Amino acid sequence: MMGKKRKEIYEEEMMCDWMVRDVLRSEVRKWARRIGVEERLHEVHIRPMKRKWASISTRGRLTLNAELYRQPAKFRAEVIVHELVHLKLGHGSHNALFRSLVRAYLATADKER
Ligand SMILES: [Zn+2]
Q: Each residue of 37-51: pLDDT tens digit?
């Protein structure tokens, strides 16, 4: 049987897990709407990743590193916007258009604060 203390810790971890996903998902939703890729974003996965903060497929599958939750909001926005602009443009290039779109969208986030 699980001791009380152990059970509390377990529940706390479950709660954190749920909150992490919820916070990240709502941020992704907000940005997808703003960037105009809501229709193309089909799946959002949040899981531990070893080498990357995030990745996106041309089919609209976004994967976020669960550790992002521990990063500052500004950095989370940078990662999410980066991936969603890839989806918007339909390629993985970091060309001039890509960079200027990322910059422009992130500037709208700065104004919110
Ligand atoms: Zn990229």
A: 999 999 999 999 999
Residues 63, 49 contacting (CB under 8 angstroms) = yes
Instruction: Judge contact between 89 and 97, C-beta under 8 A.
Output: yes
Domain that residue 64 falls in: 4-112
Quote the ligand 1 centre to 54 CA distance (angstroms): 9
Mean per-residue pLDDT of the chain: 89
Using the mean position of ligand 1's atoms as its centre, give its distance from the Cα of residue 82 in Å. Answer: 6
* CATH number for the domain that contains residue 76: 3.30.2010.10
